[in-house]
Records
---
Amino acid sequence: MHIGGMGTTELVIILAIALLVFGPKNLPKLGTTLGKTVKNIRKGMDDGAKEAEPSSAQSSSPEDAEEKKAEDGDDESPA
């Protein structure tokens, strides 16, 4: 069994060191926190990828951009 280029022996050694460093009480908390962090990172990456995709509803012509700007009331006349 190889995970990330590491064999079973390497994984057991890493887990044993983590158990010694963090202790048996804190290890489940650490695992939960790490899992939530990875989940949030993946969610953020998926959300970023969705925002980066161009929408077919949005137009890219300069004329349409000027019309939208005028509709929003962003004219540059002093008040």
---
Amino acid sequence: MEFSLHYCNGHVEVFDANGRFVFSADNMQEARDDLREMGVPC
């Protein structure tokens, strides 16, 4: 599954391939770490 990461108001929002919000993170590294924990290679 593909995800997109976007900066928004000082944090990072993660959306799935259909544009649905998945989670937010404080920064890009945290978002990537959280995706890896979900089993997403990035």
